[in-house]
């Protein structure tokens, strides 16, 4: 195998994903290995695309969102459209996560207040038992 080509097991091992995951990305049109007999041979481009797909996944992007951004790659234009789209998606995800954090913080506050009220309402003897159960 050439220095800039990879087997399915090479990529699975390097990126700590299953070979099934790689085949799934291939089915979705995200990776395009060539066939050598029964084997898949991935190029350095496939490797970079996989890296971007997994980064997108960590950032909360769907596969479709990742595909859209990856396919905008245009080195002759400095990837301006791709970068602008990526920035817009990042800002959108950040806004959603910040809103979720506010909701979670509010829920945690309500839970603490309700727990406090319940503990205060219990007789002293039961409070000790309830306090230990939550520990």
Question: Would you give an account of this structure?
Answer:
- The protein is mainly alpha-helical and 135 residues long.
- It has a domain at 1-59: Multidrug-efflux Transporter Regulator, Chain: A, Domain 2 (Orthogonal Bundle), CATH 1.10.1660.10.
- It has helices at residues 8-15, 19-27, 44-58, 63-70, 80-121, 124-133, and strands spanning 5-7, 34-36, 39-43.
- It has a 3-stranded antiparallel beta sheet.
- A hairpin with a 2-residue loop joins strand 2 and strand 3 (39-43).
- Helix 3 (44-58) packs across helix 4.
- The protein is elongated.
- The mean pLDDT is 90.
The number of helical segments is 6
> Uncertain runs with pLDDT below 50, 5 residues or more?
none
What topology, given as strand order, has the largest sheet?
1-3-2
Number of strands: 3
Q: How helix-rich are the residues, as a percent range?
A: 55-70%
Structural class: mainly alpha
Mean pLDDT: 90
CATH class of the domain at 1-59: Mainly Alpha
Helix-strand sequence: EHHEEHHHH
Cα-to-Cα separation, first versus last residue: 57 Å
Quick one: overall form? elongated
CATH architecture of the domain at 1-59: Orthogonal Bundle
Compact description:
The chain is mainly alpha-helical and 135 residues long. It is built from six helices and three strands; from the N terminus they run E-H-H-E-E-H-H-H-H.
What structural keywords apply?
Multidrug-efflux Transporter Regulator, Chain: A, Domain 2, elongated, 3-stranded antiparallel sheet, 135 residues, mainly alpha
């Amino acid at each position: 195998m050439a220095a800039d080509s990879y087997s399915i097991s090479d990529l699975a091992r390097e990126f700590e994903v299953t070979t099934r995951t790689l085949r799934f990305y291939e089915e979705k049109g995200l990776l395009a290995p060539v066939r050598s007999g029964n084997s898949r041979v991935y190029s350095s481009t496939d490797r970079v695309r996989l890296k971007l797909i997994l980064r997108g996944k960590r950032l909360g992007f769907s596969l479709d969102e990742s595909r859209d951004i990856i396919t905008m790659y245009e080195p002759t234009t400095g990837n301006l459209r791709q970068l602008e789209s990526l920035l817009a998606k990042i800002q959108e995800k950040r806004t959603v996560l910040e809103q979720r954090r506010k909701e979670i913080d509010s829920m945690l506050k309500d839970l603490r207040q309700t727990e406090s009220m319940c503990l205060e309402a219990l007789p002293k003897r039961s409070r000790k038992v309830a306090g230990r159960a939550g520990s």
